[in-house]
Amino acid sequence: MNEHELIELANTIMPFGKYKGKLIKDIPENYLIWLNSQEYVNGKLSQQLLLMADLKLNGLEKLLIPLVRPIS
Question: How many domains does the chain have?
Answer without folding.
Answer: 1
